[in-house]
Amino acid sequence: VVEEDKPGLRKRIGELKKEGDNVSVEYRVQHKSGKILHIMGNVKLLKENGELIYQRFLLDCTDQKLQEKKKERLHAELVQALSVDYSFVYKQDNIVFSQISQVAFDGDDVYFKGLCRFLPDAWIVGTYSEDKTHLVIKSGQYLGHGLYHYYFSAAHRESAEIEGEDCLIWVKDDEFVLDVTDGRTFTFDNDHYFTAT
Fold first, then answer.
1. Is residue 176 exposed (0-12), middle (13-18) or buried (19+ Cβ within 10 Å)?
2. CB-based burial of residue 197 (10 Å sphere; 0-12 exposed, 13-18 middle, 19+ buried)?
3. Can you name the residues that pair with 171 across neighbouring β-strands?
4. Which of 64, 115, 178, 195: disulfide with 135, CB 3.0–4.6 Å?
5. pLDDT tens, position by position, 30-89
6. Predicted local distance difference test score (pLDDT) of residue 80
7. Hey, which residues does 26 pair with through a beta bridge?
């Protein structure tokens, strides 16, 4: 039993006074490999051959505890994310634009609210790359409705010749990729764009 859990365990077992008394216990033990295991169980006072003995039923709940800690960490990340402003920075025709968005995190998924000015309550989701340097947002996510039903659409600019003249056209993409800089700023270049269609 790890040192800091010993007093509490002794106290709980000390509550057992007469035959049939039982207590629930939860404590940690250190395996000989060094790994910390979380133990949950029940200790009951029984009489055997005229003597009081402790009967223990124990369960290794290490995986459950690790999942709880992960949920607590994700909740803390969400609370932190909602208390910090996140910026989308983009440059079009040498003018830099910045837009603040609400952001929420769930593992590698990042949820954005307010990217479309005329649908300020719409949320979309993107997924981090493995190295967390890029964020991919899939086209076709439903944003909501006003006069029409709107979907998130990504596009990139290409040069084209139309009726003998050079011009720029927007070509629809399946996904929109953002660069992640300081963990709070998402950027994309002049030739990529997103909109609601």
1. buried
2. middle
3. 156
4. 178
5. 989 989 988 888 889 888 888 888 888 888 888 888 888 888 887 776 666 554 556 655
6. 62
7. 40
